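The instructor's notes for this session suggest beginning with a concrete chain rather than abstract definitions. Hand out the sequence below and ask the class to guess, before any prediction is shown, which regions might be ordered.
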Amino acid sequence: MQNFNLPKALETLKTNHYLGLEVQDRYYVILEANHEETIAKFKDYQNSFELILDSSNRLESYIAELNPLAYDIIDFSEKPIVLISIGGKNLAPSAIMPDSSIQIRVVREGELQQLIRKFRMPILLCAINDEDISMLDESNTFKCIMQDAFLESSLIRLDPNGRVEILRS
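After discussion, reveal the predicted structure:
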């Protein structure tokens, strides 16, 4: 395992289509959101996949019918937010839930935001269980500092018809 180094992490993601992260004794995996084979390796975690974006400006690229409240919710929230929205698009089919929803988190700062910007392709993030750490190759795993992407978030479901449901505040 190595400390996070943006060029190395970017190269690992481009080459292997995934990389592991250790953040304060928790493990996460970052996946290229359009690479079916890699997503299939982590299919047991599909319910926890979060599409991570570096800006709310990219929401329309991945949601077919975006509830316009999404921008305000993300831009004015003081706490990390994960939006659940119906109509995921431009992602590998297995990155989208069976009900066509996707979970989206906008990363506002830190190394992960820089990685998203440099990679320029959709990325999924999910926490993995300690017993599944063996799925990660130690040479492809980086120690990362705590940042908003790893903090507990509010969970809000937005329907295209304007309905908003707070699932966890």
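Then share the key points. The longest helix spans residues 6-16. The domain at 2-168 is CATH 3.90.870.10 (DHBP synthase).
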